[in-house]
Amino acid sequence: MITVNENWTQTMGITLDDAIRLSRELLEQCPHSKKGVTRLNYCREIICEGNHAIREATCSVTFRKAVDVSLHEREGRRPSTLRELHYICRRILQSSIRIGDMRLRDIKAKHCHKVLSELFPTPRQFHKARIILHSIFACGMRHEWCAANPIIGVMKPCLAEVEIAPLAWEDMKRLLHTARKPPHRSCAALLGVMLWAGIRPAEAQRLQWDDINWEEGIILLPAKHSKTGGARCITLQSVLRRWLLRVCRGKNLTGALCPKGWNYRWKKLRNAAGIMRWQQDVLRHTFASYHLKHFKDLPQLQLEMGHSTPTLLRTRYLNMRGITKEHARLFWSPGEWC
In Å, how far are 120, 196, 294, 302 from 307, measured between CA atoms? Predict the structure, then answer.
């Protein structure tokens, strides 16, 4: 006959009848025989696994908390990047399914898809928000708040690339001619590095004169200034060297290349040159097309552009329709512009 101390039942918070009932239920779940494992040990395994599952289920945080931690880990990013991150995260937290209050571990691919479809209707918006969601769940996995990244189950949207033609030859001539005039000369240096070095507008605005190595003939774009986070060296072509020395003659070449009030000055220059419609990154696309047309060196162009593979160059950047061999030669000729 089994005797149980009353203090034990009070300490454990369970009666003897309940303990017997639980033991019976455990034994009913055990197989009648398992090689090398007694039924008692098998019951112990079930208890351990159950405890582990309960700890996993409770060791999580809300999605809102994960967003806060993820944003905190990126505090060192550039201000423009942080503004975009905060904006998209605020939008996500406004979802009708109240995803912010859900535990990170409970969020599935279907919830992510609903949020993205509801708040980001265009493919490009969907794609950008998907990337940010992916990073939030990756942060959660590092902190062991979730076991998997549910965004993997959400298909990437198909992005239709918009063709960007190189700047028309006559437009280019007017733009460069106007930039040499005193009212617009403050923009000439940045115009030159965007056109003849293929540097993105935002990257060019962060450039310092110290980033130009005149002796070695290179422009060093530091990783902190690069859009992709990787440093790159760009050839200082003779046409760009001559252009910079001419438009900045008599100036102390220190500090930033970008003048104060750049956006206003840049738009005023384009308008003065008679170019009212402007495509973002058109100068970078112009550089790529004229570079390949003249130098015929795709690997070198890939390095100068900072692309990890030539795929993007071939599918989006290279548009040499209408570019003649003679124009390509003149594009890189210092005598044509300087």
Answer: 28, 17, 20, 5
* CB 288 within 8 Å of CB 317: yes
CATH 1.10.8 fits 63-153, yes or no: no
What is the number of alpha carbons within 13 Å of residue 309 lying toward its C-beta?
5
Burial per residue of 41-75, b for 16 or more beta-carbon CB atoms within 10 angstroms, e otherwise: ebbeeeeeeeeeeeeeeeebbbbbbbbeebbeeee
| In the predicted structure, residue 37 carries a pLDDT above the cut 70 | no
pLDDT at residue 257 in the model = 93
Distance CA 121, CA 129 (A): 11
Output the pLDDT for position 227.
72
- One-letter amino acid identity for 75? E
**pLDDT value at position 307?**
79
Q: Does domain 169-337 have CATH number 1.10.443.10?
A: yes
Please say whether the beta carbons of 338 and 180 come within 8 A.
no
The closest alpha carbon to 318, from 293, 295, 297, belongs to 293
pLDDT in tens, 153-192: 999 988 766 667 899 999 999 999 999 999 999 999 999 9
Global pTM value: 0.66
Question: Would you kindly state where each structural domain of the chain is located, as residue ranges?
Answer: 63-153, 169-337
Is there a contact between 285 and 165 (Cβ–Cβ < 8 Å)? yes
Helix axes 63-73, 79-93, angle to 10 degrees: 180
pLDDT at 100: 94
